[in-house]
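To assess whether ligand presence alters the predicted conformation, the chain was also submitted together with D-ribose. Input:
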Amino acid sequence: MKNKKIIIGSDHAGFELKEDIKKFLTQLGYDCEDIGVFNKEPADYPKTAFKVAKEVAKTDGKGILMCGSGLGEAIVANKVKGIRAANCFNEYTAINSREHNNSNLLCLGARILKNDEAKKITKIWLSTNFSNEERHKRRVKQIKEIEEKICR
Ligand code: RB5
């Protein structure tokens, strides 16, 4: 969907990729809300990941997080109620995380992916819709039910 806001953030390891992805998203017609970081000084990934995840959950929107591996930020983001963060590393995982899991936060590993690969994954992830198939709706609902039990 064009002209939709995407909330983005990174730690130091993901900073350069974030800047590149930001330009790419603008070219694709998206608006970016950049939560930081804004330079390559060492920065602890839980801080930005938590800020981005909270904003995505609050706005019922979509976000993209970038760190070295994409793993730490996904771990943090998935602790926020309403977040389904997916560490995608190829076309298949990008499509699957949207169609099956209705992921709302894409986590990219800047030390693993080349920028062109990250852009390709981003474009596919943003343009793939949740399948809305019954079995996937049921499973995503189960995720929400688990969340209700553990997030007080
Ligand atoms: C930073 O060195 C690195 O640990 C971080 O970017 C990320 O990969 C954590 O999961």
